[in-house]
Every structure is written in structure tokens, then in C-alpha cells.
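hiii, so i know i said id send this last week but things got crazy w the move. better late than never?? heres the sequnce for the chain we talked about at the cafe, plus the structure i predicted for it. fair warning i was half asleep when i ran it
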Amino acid sequence: LVALFADAARRAGADPERSVVALRGYATGLVMLKPDGFDGSEMAYIRSFAEARRFDLIAAPGLTAGETNRFNRLPEDEYRTQAAALLTETGPGPGYAASRFDITPPTDDHPFFGHYFRWSQSGEVLESIGRTWQPFGGAGYFVLVVLLGFAVLVGGLLIVAPLALTGGWRRAAPSRDRWWTVAYFGLLGIAFLFVEMPLVQRYILLVGRPTTALATVLFALLAASGVGSLLSTRLPWRPSACALTATALAMPFAMGPLTTLLLPAPEPVRVLLGSAALAPLGVLMGVMFPKGLANLRCRTPDLVPWAWGINGVASVVSAVASALLALSVGFKFVVLVGAACYGLSTLLVRPDRRTSDGAPGLTRAG
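okay and structure toks below
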């Protein structure tokens, strides 16, 4: 909280050393922020409050060493030392690095106030397994790591293994078609979730409620993807792939201005216009899977089930992987990785081919 309040004061043009006061008890903390600073009478009241309730000051204007670590004594006054460093730094520096935990202030791109994990804690977390739980360490984060491994294992067993037993993979020729199937449909599965999940989070700011944001993004992308699938026979493959990559790249940079523009509007208007803003992205997403599937049906029909299976495994795994990446580096990075996957899939685009019945193949958002 001290790091967050110091950053907020700094962004508001205030002096954190004058604007932030922090107290600590045995198991309780209190942090206060006043942008224009605490005056003498306010500080006198705060000091009286702390004295009466046996709180130790750890940050306050004019704080002296004799006012800290008095009632709830520690071998070293680490709280005051670190708070002083956080209040004087202009950005992440020694004060942040000195903490056992990641105390970087949350942002709209990385809104995880309760995520404190540093990879340097890995050894300590693993050693404590079965003996204690570390809610402020990495225990929760490692649950996601285990879940990712579980998704890979179960996806392989339930989707890839049955397909392997049918023998279509070995019968398909040439081998370049097999690896093209893995790369193209795997990239589509990863990219779709890596773009979709951060959009759900960003739309919470736009529409105000997580459930509404989830419904808005899912409806807009899936409905528009269905339209894209219907139009896939009329739209050229490579230009559509290039347009999709560019649109996905633009989304993390467009969300901020879009949110600012629409926030004053009533909620139904925000939902409607927010859905409309996702329509071009959804249409282009809907083109990619049917195009690849139609091409595959024409070249090597035995690989069509593999295309579905590989895309399904990639989608399941990427749902967990995107959450891990977002916790570590933020939502914008996740979207950019998704856009990069779409960009790589563009390199795999083949000349358009139609199936024998002229249909683009079964539809699926990619």
C-alpha cells in the first residue's frame, strides 16, 4: 500500500513524503494518503492516535527514528527503512528490490494487487510444500503452473492420443502437411485465447462489471467470428490474415482511448458500442480456421480431425498460459504475443483452395 500510495501521489504531482502516512500494529496496518499533504494539527492527532493505540509510525512527514519500532519491536526497523525508500524513489528502485515480494503498484494493464510472487522465491516455496501455505509468496502462482502442466497432459491424453490411435497422422502425406497442420492450427488456438482473455479484463473498465464484460466480449467475438466464417469463401486468405494481425496489434493501444471516450455514456450504450468495436476483429478471426480447414480437406482429408484436435489442445493450454503471462508481465504483452501468433500464421497461408463441394469447411473462430 505504501508503494501504491506513493506512486499515486507522485502521479498527481504531490510530494509522497508529505502526502503519505503509515502506521503498523502487531497484525494491523493503516496507510493514509492526502494529496495536498498533512498539516501540523493533523499530524499531532495522528501521533496521539498512534500513541494511544500502540501503533508504530513507519512513514510520516518529519518522522524521527525515536518514533518508530517502539511498541511492536522488531530486530531491525525494516518497515520504516523500506517505506522511506519507496517515498523518495521516482520509480522502481532499491526500495522495491529490497522487498521479498513484488510490491510494484498495480495498473490497468497489470491489475493484480494481490500478486506478490517473485521467481527468486521459488526455492522457498517448493521447500515449504506440505508444511505451510504462502498466500503472499508463490503458492497461488505455482497452482497455475501445475494447472498448466495438467492441461497439457490431459489435452494430450484426451484429444491427441485418440487421434493417434486412428492412424490418420501416419497415413497422411507428405510430412510437410502434417507439420503445417500442427503449426497453423496450433497458432490459431493460442492466438485466439491470448487476444480474447485480456480483452475481457479491459472491458471490465469499460462496462463496469466482470460478468457483463465477459458476456460482451464473448458474444461480440463469437458472433462476429460466425459472420467471418460465412464470408470466408469470399475473403482472400492472406490479406485477411495480415489485417487480423494488424487489428490484434492495435487493440491494446486502442482500448485506453476507447474506454475514455465511452465511459460517460450509459451502460447499454457502452455495451453496444464496445461490441461493435470488436466486430472487425471477430470477423477476421472467423476467417482463419475455415480457410485452413478447407485447404486441408482438399490436400489431405485424413488430417482434418487432427486440425480440430490440435486447435482444441492449444486453446485449452493457452487459457492457462495467458493467465500466467498476464500475472507476470501484464495484459498488453499477452495480446502482443497473440498478435505475433497470428502474424506467424500469416507466413503459413497457402494459395486458396476450395473443397470438392465448394464449401469452406466447418466454421470455427480462429
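btw The longest strand covers residues 20-24. thought thatd interest u
miss u guys!!
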